Amino acid sequence: MHPALSDHARPKRAVFFISDSTGITAETLGNALLANFPGFRFERHTIPFIDTAEAATAVVQTITAADAAGLAPIVFSTMKNAAVGRVLDTAPAPRIDLLGGHLTELEQTLGTTASEQLGQFHTVGDTEAYFARMRAVEYAIEHDDGQSSRALEFADVIIIAPSRCGKTPTTMYLALQYGLLVANYPLTDEDFPTDGLPRLVAPYADRCYGLTTTPLRLSQVRHERRPDSRYASLAQCTLELRRAEELYRRTRVPFLNSSTKSVEEMSAIILQTLKLRA
Amino acid sequence: MHPALSDHARPKRAVFFISDSTGITAETLGNALLANFPGFRFERHTIPFIDTAEAATAVVQTITAADAAGLAPIVFSTMKNAAVGRVLDTAPAPRIDLLGGHLTELEQTLGTTASEQLGQFHTVGDTEAYFARMRAVEYAIEHDDGQSSRALEFADVIIIAPSRCGKTPTTMYLALQYGLLVANYPLTDEDFPTDGLPRLVAPYADRCYGLTTTPLRLSQVRHERRPDSRYASLAQCTLELRRAEELYRRTRVPFLNSSTKSVEEMSAIILQTLKLRA
Predict the structure, then answer these.
(1) Partner residue opposite A224 with nearest CB, options B123, B131, B261
(2) pLDDT exceeding 90 applies to what percent of chain B?
């Protein structure tokens, strides 16, 4: 496919992410695979909770309609029940089974048969894990932007950075995905006359993690919030980031540049650096 | 494996989730597969950001050490670069390649070769998507627990429920995973003398979604926050949930029971019901 081809000339195909659960994994892995084919345009549909043959039959009709419309459908599926998966194979579309084949591989490796009843993507009804997550999200809200010092000694991570470097989304992701207690603290002009970390977080230096970004990007993000302010000016952003990075280095706080990273990547790096992986 | 076998008698195997990116997908899919084998004990390790042959060689040593310790390792991998993946095959462990085989299937389906450069799990540096996520998380924090009515007309979803039914984690998940603007509003005793929805959210009834749970579980969660209070008593929880469910039915607000569902499942159901899927 020639990259200069206009968007409308590129073939458009219908893609179905079909799951007996939420569809999140089918979507994530399917999209990662599709990203390798930039020459195509895809029309994506996620269809979750397909856990009976009847539900699968209805999906087959949807896929058939897409085929009739000339969209040459492709199916990605994560179905734990092989019989339900096989219903999808009656649709006029190749199916990429993201789960079934690997289950067979794992059966061979472990020398035993999979127990159909127990395959759950997410631990449903696991009360302890649910409580941990709820507590973590509430802790993150309470400790967003240095709002509270209550129970700060229990923080697993304290993210520090100048305003608008990406502290909040990363905090929430760590709380939700890993159930960690995460606080974040904004570095302001007041934090810079001194040599050390801000007074509030200084006792927990070993749990601090810094963020930085590029001045241009920071200025862009700050203009969104306060257009044409000193706060958003390139000069001010350059100064704050330079001071923050100097502070991280001086206090030996590990840090990363958020400008080229997704929230998932930043979270994974923080976990790894602070050795918070199980 | 006999289920009555004591935990210590069950074989323990080392499982490695290895990725050139965050490892989240390898972990999620790998754990979904392992959940089908309840007769085994697994010692899980996630090793992200393995994107060079050198890094993979170091991982092979870690796997070899686990093998020497008698833990009969298993590897799950999501590597976009096949050559890096092949380095892992020199380890004394079967590798379940969650990506490579499917890439070949997709190449056959599309009749073209994958472009190695472009396979990214998460859209790195996608400024617009990043802004949307940041705005969504900030909106969710601002609108948690009915704290603000500012810009409530822009909410994609308003989750309503009595205190401690799981509004906050679900709100955050929808904001982070899908970039949706989500508010949540607590139903209190004051909301029940009237027939309709609370005044603040009534104009947006079509975007409201209700949560309920079981009285026993609600009482358990509330005891965590305020032990032995009227608020946490089974009688009070039963009453509040009955009133909330009556309100949802009367006002035709769709609702679900959070007691047996994960945050991911609730989010997927809400998306589907309110037709918020792309």
Answers:
(1) B131
(2) 69
Domain residue spans in chain B?
Answer: 7-118, 127-273
CATH code: domain B7-118 is 3.40.50
Name every chain B residue with its beta carbon within 8 A of the beta carbon of A28.
24-25, 28, 121
Q: How far is A38 from chain B (nearest CA, A)?
A: 8
Class of domain B127-273: alpha beta
Report pLDDT digits (tens) over B28-54: 899 889 988 888 899 999 999 999 999
Report the length, in residues, of chain B.
Answer: 278
Tokens 């020398």 locate to: A111
pLDDT tens for residues A50-75? 999 999 999 999 999 999 999 999 99
- Residue A166, marked binder: yes
- In B, minimum Cα distance to A120 occurs at B32
User: Quick one: three-class SS letters along chain B?
Assistant: CCCCCCHHHCCEEEEEEEECCCCHHHHHHHHHHHCCCCCCEEEEEEECCCCCHHHHHHHHHHHHHHHHCCCCCEEEEECCCHHHHHHHCCCCCCEEECCHHHHHHHHHHHCCCCCHHHCCCCCCCCHHHHHHHHHHHHHHHHCHHHCCCCCHHHCCEEEEEECCCCHHHHHHHHHHHHCCCEEEEEECHHHCCCCCCCCCCHHHHHHEEEEECCHHHHHHHHHHHCCCCCCCCHHHHHHHHHHHHHHHHHCCCCEEEHHHCCHHHHHHHHHHHCCCCC
Reported ipTM: 0.85
Q: In which residue ranges of chain A is pLDDT below 50?
A: 1-4, 118-125
The CA distance from A159 to A204, in Å, is 11
Annotated binding site of B for ADP: 161-168
Do domains A9-118 and A127-273 share one topology? The answer is: yes
B277: number of Cβ within 10 Å: 15
Task: Pick B169's closest partner by Cβ from A176, A260, A269.
Answer: A176
A9-118 CATH choice from 3.40.50, 2.50.20, 1.10.10, 3.40.1350: 3.40.50
Mean pLDDT of the region B57-71:
96
β-bridge pairing A12-19 and A41-47: parallel
SS3 A47: strand
